[in-house]
Amino acid sequence: MTVDPAALPERVRARLIGMAADALGAMPADQVPGALRRVAAFTPARRARVAGAQLLAALAADTEFGEHLAIQVRARQAVLVAALEAGERSAETAALAFLLRTDGWEELVAEVTLGEEAATAALHAGQTDAELDVMRERLSRRDTELAELRAALNDARAALKAEQASVRQRIGEARARSRSDLADSETARAVAEEQVLATAAEREALRAELGVLRERTDLLEVELARARRSGRTEREAATMRARLLLDTLLQAGQGLRQELGLPVVQGAPADQVVADLVGTEEPAGVRVSSATGSLAADDPALLRELLALPGFHLVVDGYNVSRDSWGGLTLEEQRARLLRGLAPVAARTGAEMTVVFDAAHADTRPSLAPPRGVRVVFSPAGVIADDVIRDLVAAEPPGRPVGVVTSDQEIVRAVTRRPGVHAVAARALVRLLA
């Protein structure tokens, strides 16, 4: 049977509020409900007066709070606890028994309640027999409820014992499963250790094989270096023979030109390409073809030899060179630096030079004064510099020595199909200018 604290007799309820208010101040803050924390700092009498109803409501609604409060009351009401254990029947012991939930607290509360009701009945001795019958009936109902409560408690104890037995059984089963899992994990660990040992052995075997392969690689590298030195010697000899032959041909050509009195050629094929781009016409010319030795594409020596060829035309992919070397500058600064570097080279070598800048996506063309001996071309709108370079190379007569300075491999593949055209890496020109 559950008894609402608010339904207790007035004297029992008053003593319950007094004990709860006294013990509330000793409770830790985290055990006090939020609604009572403000009054916890008050004096016990003020707590009972201001928050009596809140204390009763918290006891009815919060079982955990009631248990914590019972611990504090038991510690602070030692004399009353002793009287309760001695079997004293009073409003104080009934309030304490209700709060501590001691064995038989229901009977005690009911007895004191009946006593209180009997006292009240004695004060009203003039009540009618009908009222007394009502009181007896209520007492009988209370006895019946008490008997039902005892039976419910017995049933609850039996159910608790059964649940405890079931829990013990589940714990035993869990322990058995844990032992089985532990045995399985030991087996898996042993298998894993065997796999680790096998992997280590395999790794050692692979290391040994790698050592053998490295030794073979070292031998092959030595043989390759020897072969390269031999091939380089043969190429140098062939180059020397070719240069001797070239010098002979050049001298013969110069003698023939002087003997025949041939006039100097005016204009260049590149002038015609540029004229087509801007919509004007320029006369086209013919140049004498030549060739050069086999050097690395980024070797400035290759560019120096090409520039020494008679009638050589150097086509420069402007932004490909400038952005690779001076990408931190503005486009205007890149153009100025490249043209300043090419001016003395053109003056020194007398080679024809054409610098192509990509302006396919630009609405306007910058106005600049190119250095003497250097032709500057901006590609038309919608036309990339790659296409202009291809047109310049295609316009040259077969056999004329032409050099294209770019690191764009697509342009290199396109122009080197033509005889007499040499691809020079952008780095070679930058190193030459430096």
Descriptors:
five-stranded parallel β-sheet, 66% helix, mainly alpha, 434 residues, 14 helices
Describe this structure as you would to a colleague.
Helix 1 crosses helix 3, helix 1 crosses helix 5 and helix 6 crosses helix 7. The chain starts with 9 loop residues before the first helix and ends with a helix. The radius of gyration is 56 Å and the shape is elongated. The chain has 434 residues and is mostly helical. A five-stranded parallel sheet has the order 3-2-1-4-5, sandwiched between helices. About 3% of the residues have low confidence. Strand 4, helix 13 and strand 5 form a beta-alpha-beta unit. Helices cover 66% and strands 6% of the residues. It is built from 14 helices and five strands.
Structural class from helices and strands? mainly alpha
CA(first)-CA(last) distance: 105 Å
Reading side by side through the largest sheet, how are the strands ordered? 3-2-1-4-5
Shape: elongated
Number of helices: 14
Helix content: 55-70%
Mean pLDDT: 83
Strand content: 5-15%
Characterize the largest beta sheet: strand count, sense, and whether it forms a barrel. Answer: 5 strands, parallel
Q: For the CA atoms, what is the radius of gyration?
A: 56 Å
Give the strand tally. 5
| Model regions low in confidence, pLDDT < 50 over at least 5 residues | 280-292
Order of helices and strands: HHHHHHHHHEHHEEHEHEH
